[in-house]
TrEMBL record:
This is 4-hydroxy-tetrahydrodipicolinate synthase. It comes from Cupriavidus basilensis. One of its GO terms (molecular function) is 4-hydroxy-tetrahydrodipicolinate synthase activity. It holds the Pfam family DHDPS. SUPFAM superfamilies: Aldolase. Belongs to the DapA family. Its EC number is 4.3.3.7. Keywords: Lyase. PANTHER family: BLR3884 PROTEIN, DIHYDRODIPICOLINATE SYNTHASE.
Length: 304
């Protein structure tokens, strides 16, 4: 494995919004700083960041704010996948210019049932147009959302064509067999499950860590488990409980609701349409589940 292989736990950082749904940049930066202090890296402009509900200017401003705040670029991944190749190129160049470790790139996601040749051509065009030796691409496999899978044969073709630029895969399929297949066929790549539960199962098999939404609320324990077999065994049950509590609800709203409890700030519950906050009954159920699962919330008076 290369010495500079991407690895570790990364939080696909949720984006705090003000009451008028503008981005609360100070709160975003403070959240990223807490995550890094807890041992996580940050993945900006991912699914859980609501990136597809943000403008290009906003997405670039989030990267700038984090780097300008002194968070090291090697701890930062940036989501740059867009339907239009030119848009993806612009966001990718910006991330490279700011010294970020890599870019997390969705396939073009509007047209469905496209041929693998077309998806390959998209990534080829992106890599060739960016034309920068610093480019490190983490392919983003999230078929339930994108409708365009990153197949094993596509990965094989891309690695053969661009062995330096293709750095890894984030597998958000939730399919253990697919994670296993990626680890077996691509040992030189950084394979990131999108769940810390799957990370704990796959670290011994070569997983690079995880890029998990619940790192936003449980980064310290997940980072400890990533770094130590002993800590992984000690923390397995609690980490699993937190993850399973969040998974019962729409993930973005669940993570933001939990952050509102941890921070004592209801502003964290804001999401941009078409997403909606948790309904009152779901919010109460999640509050109760997290109060049981997370020591930081035990004994705290929890609003619904």
């Amino acid at each position: 494995m290369a010495a500079d292989k991407l690895r570790g736990v990364f939080a696909p950082v949720v984006t705090p919004f003000n009451n008028d749904l503008s981005i609360n940049l100070p709160a975003f930066v403070a959240h990223c700083q807490r995550l890094v202090a807890d041992g996580a890296g940050v993945a900006i402009s991912g699914t859980n960041s609501e990136a597809c509900s943000e403008t290009f200017e906003e997405r670039m401003a989030l990267v700038d704010a984090v780097i300008d705040a002194g968070i090291p670029g090697e701890r930062v991944l940036v989501g740059t996948g867009c339907c239009a190749i030119g848009d993806a190129v612009a966001l990718t160049r910006h991330a490279i210019d700011r010294g970020c470790a890599g870019v997390l790139v969705l396939p073009p996601f509007f047209f469905k049932n496209v041929q693998e040749d077309g998806v390959f051509a998209y990534y080829r065009e992106l890599i060739q147009r960016v034309d920068d030796p610093a480019l490190r691409v983490v392919l983003y496999h999230i078929p339930a959302m994108s409708g365009v899978p990153i197949t094993l044969s596509l990965i094989e073709r891309l690695v053969a064509a661009f062995p330096t630029q293709i750095a890894g895969v984030k597998d958000s399929s939730g399919d253990w067999d697919n994670v296993m297949a990626m680890l077996e066929r691509f040992p030189a790549l950084s394979i990131f499950p999108a769940s810390e539960i799957l990370m704990l199962r796959s670290l011994a098999l070569g997983a690079a860590g995880c890029i998990s939404a619940t790192n936003n609320i449980n980064a310290r324990d997940i980072a400890l488990a990533y770094g130590s077999v002993t800590e992984a065994a000690r923390l397995n049950d609690s980490i699993t409980s937190v993850r399973k509590a969040a998974e019962r609800f729409p993930m973005v709203a669940a993570v933001k609701h939990t952050l509102s409890l941890l921070a004592g700030d209801a502003g964290w519950r804001h999401v941009r349409p078409p997403l909606v906050p948790l309904a009152a009954d779901a919010a109460l159920q999640l509050s109760q589940a997290m109060a049981t699962a997370m020591p930081a919330l035990r004994g705290v008076a929890l609003p619904a």
